[in-house]
């Protein structure tokens, strides 16, 4: 069941060699696990059913390539032997019409405040509604 309030927006980073956008599209749904940073885990704890997240290829590519939807809220991560970290469930939502490079994002004055620019190593971060809509427009992608 999707939350009746409007969704929040996020950005999830993945190394394409570990989990790529093509992997996400072919699997459709997956657990977003393996996050071992307390700030990123704190962001995941705030996610609600129905929230949307940009899927970002980190590493050499450094670009937003798609959108996923949160389908499972924060739960224990079985890949964490310490039991301190959790995961969320995500589902393929939409491929961007045009990917957006980090270089392009950094060139936009109105996006200088987002965590992707300010905290480049953070793997899970919130995106405010204005920035979400702006990035969707840059990618020429409509999201229902």
Short description:
With 144 residues, this protein is an alpha+beta fold. It contains 5 helices and 6 strands; from the N terminus they run βαβαβββααβα.
What layout of secondary structure does this protein have?
Elements: E1 9-14, H1 21-27, E2 29-32, H2 38-45, E3 52-57, E4 63-76, E5 86-101, H3 102-107, H4 115-118, E6 124-127, H5 129-138
Description:
This protein has a 6-stranded mixed β-sheet with strand order 2-5-4-3-1-6. It is globular. With 144 residues, the protein is α+β, with helices and mostly antiparallel strands. The model has no long low-confidence stretch (mean pLDDT 95). The chain has a single domain (9-138), classed as ph1033 like fold, CATH 3.10.590. The protein contains 5 helices and 6 strands; from the N terminus they run βαβαβββααβα.
Name the beta content range: 25-35%
Overall radius of gyration: 14 Å
What kind of assembly state do the chains in view correspond to?
single chain
Return the CATH architecture.
Roll
**Ends distance:** 17 Å
Taking all residues together, what is the mean pLDDT? 95
User: What is the string of SSEs from the N terminus onward?
Assistant: EHEHEEEHHEH
Query: Which structural class fits the helix and strand makeup?
Result: alpha+beta
Large-scale geometry: globular
What is the total tally of β strands? 6
Total helical segments: 5
* Biggest sheet record: 6 strands, mixed
CATH class: Alpha Beta
Low-confidence stretches: none
């Amino acid at each position: 069941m999707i939350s009746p309030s409007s969704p929040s927006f996020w950005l999830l980073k993945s190394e394409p060699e570990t989990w790529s956008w093509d992997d996400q599209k072919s699997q459709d749904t997956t657990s977003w696990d393996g996050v071992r940073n307390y700030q990123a885990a704190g962001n995941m704890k705030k996610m609600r059913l129905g929230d949307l997240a940009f899927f970002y290829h980190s590493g050499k590519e450094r670009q937003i390539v798609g959108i996923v939807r949160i389908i499972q809220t924060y739960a224990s991560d079985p890949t964490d032997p310490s039991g301190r970290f959790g995961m969320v469930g995500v589902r393929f939502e939409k491929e961007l019409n045009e990917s957006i490079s980090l270089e392009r994002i950094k060139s936009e004055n109105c996006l200088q405040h987002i965590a992707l620019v300010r905290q480049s190593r953070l793997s899970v971060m919130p995106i405010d509604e204005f920035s979400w809509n702006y990035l969707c427009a840059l990618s020429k992608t409509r999201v229902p």
